[in-house]
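Dear colleague,

Thank you for sharing your sequence with our group. We've completed the structure prediction you requested, and as agreed, I am returning the results in plain text so they can be pasted directly into your records. Please verify that the sequence below matches your submission; if there's any discrepancy, let me know and we will rerun it promptly.
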Amino acid sequence: MSDVGAAIGQTLSPEALEGLLRRIGAERYHNRHPYHRRMTAGELSKGELQAWALNRYCYQAAIPRKDAIIIARSSDPAFRAAWRSRIEEHDGSDGWNGGIARWLHLATSLGLDAEVVKSERLALPATRFAVGAYLSFCAERSFLEAVASSLTELFSPVIIAERVPAMLAKYDYITRDTLVYFERRPEQASRDSDFALAYVLEHADTAERQQAVVDALVHKCDILWAMLDALDHAYGAGEAIPPGAFIPEH
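Please find the predicted structure tokens below.
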């Protein structure tokens, strides 16, 4: 029986805490979601892939804002200097030559209009609520919890390794150029998550703090899972698209 999510009764060693955090990812990360599984099996329609790219843009665009919140809450110049590379990765040097721009390129390569994607007005209500909840979490919960919520990046290389080769093999309209966003992400995510993990393991030094970081990672996994739940509900077999949201061309 899994112990992921169980209450921490006594302070764990750093090694035990890291093991628990990694088990959370193994059980709760969204590479286990049916929408992702259908994506890698080549079973999504082009409209479903467009909806995924359009909605995920809302999350991608919020990442540097989330990181700016975390930086603003830190009183440690060394921490801020290390963390700010995350903003530079997504915004680039001018706001439009970093990761956000590369995600926008993915969306337009799938046939979406760039200005429509950037406006976010056709995103699902659940997507906007999930992204807003993540920003609020990082602003309102403890600084340690905000940092811990970023630990989903530990598992990002796994989902990319599943997604990219499968999409290239299963969808003839997707090329390596379409997926250029993912070329740098495994290296960036590994570097960033190593820093965040080291910070969490050093500062989560009581059972209470360890419980907080475990719950923060679970919460972040839930946010990512909920975003795919919304896509599956709206664009899957039931096609329960809410008013005002993106409607694929069949």
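Summary note from our side: The chain is about 70% helix and 0% strand.

Kind regards,
the structure core
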